[in-house]
Design goal:
By secondary structure, the chain is α/β, with parallel strands linked by helices. The protein is built from eight helices and twelve strands. 36% of the residues are buried.
């Protein structure tokens, strides 16, 4: 397989704001590809560990607790979808899928199961590094009690101040959101490319006992109307038959 390569030193420019010494688990059965990713990631100040198949990936995920997993779809013993499903069962480790299947349905499968991002082969290793660092920044901000802001495109959520804003024509507009609308927007912004099912949004965003999936549609519709009035369209974005994703300028 061809990889669009360049000098690994150029990837260092993406390292601003990255988690220092974060551990990246590379689950990739093609040694040449894994070696290139190791070189680029290490030159960006990240630690790496390599797994050669799906079972090895799950064993190292369990024992080493990596900060992020680069996960190939087509691997021996267990494929990437099976590994991703088990990682999601265990917790919220960020996962970026590596796939040679450049089809929307395959990307959608990964995002539906819970991938945070995907990269289609052949890829530029520097782009993979940039994606890794971006996901690390987002997940660190979401999980670190010392961090209070989530910024995606023109949107910003202040978790401590419980305020959401969006930039419209150069001006910052405060969104008048209910608690549930705020939680839905925050959940989607934490993984803006991931598709969340209605069931997942119920768990993350709705009050206890409010468990009807159509209730999610109602809250999303009201949130979307409030953004529409500001000229911000298709946020959140509907994914037919699956659920919702952020859909903004990621």
């Amino acid at each position: 397989m061809t990889i669009r390569s360049e000098d690994p030193k150029t990837s260092a420019r993406f390292n601003k704001g990255a988690t220092p010494q974060a551990l990246i688990l590379i689950a990739e059965d093609q040694i040449e590809i894994a070696d290139i990713l190791v070189a680029y990631l290490q030159r960006s100040g990240l630690k790496t560990v390599h797994a050669v198949d799906g079972q090895d990936a799950l064993a190292k995920h369990h024992s080493l607790k990596p900060d992020l997993v680069l996960l190939d779809v087509q691997m021996p013993k267990m494929d990437g979808w099976q590994v991703l499903a088990e990682i999601r069962h265990r917790g919220n480790t960020p996962v970026i899928m590596l796939t040679a299947l450049d089809q929307d349905i395959d990307k959608l499968t990964g995002l539906r199961i819970g991938a945070d991002d995907y990269v289609v082969k052949p890829f530029n290793p520097a782009e993979v590094v940039a994606r890794v660092l971006a996901v690390l920044r987002r997940t660190t901000a979401a999980g670190n009690g010392g961090e209070r802001l989530i910024r995606i495109g023109k949107f910003q959520v202040d978790l401590e101040g419980h305020q959401a804003t969006v930039e419209v024509q150069g001006q910052l507009k405060v969104l008048d959101l209910t608690l549930t609308e705020f939680k839905i927007l925050t959940t989607l912004m934490r993984a803006p490319k991931r598709v969340f099912s209605r069931a997942e949004l119920i768990v993350a965003s709705l009050p206890e006992g409010d468990t009807l999936e159509r209730t999610v549609d109602s809250h999303v519709s009201k949130l979307r109307r409030k953004l529409d009035t500001l000229g911000v369209q298709n946020v959140p974005e509907s994914v037919r038959g699956v659920g919702y994703r952020f859909g903004g300028d990621v």
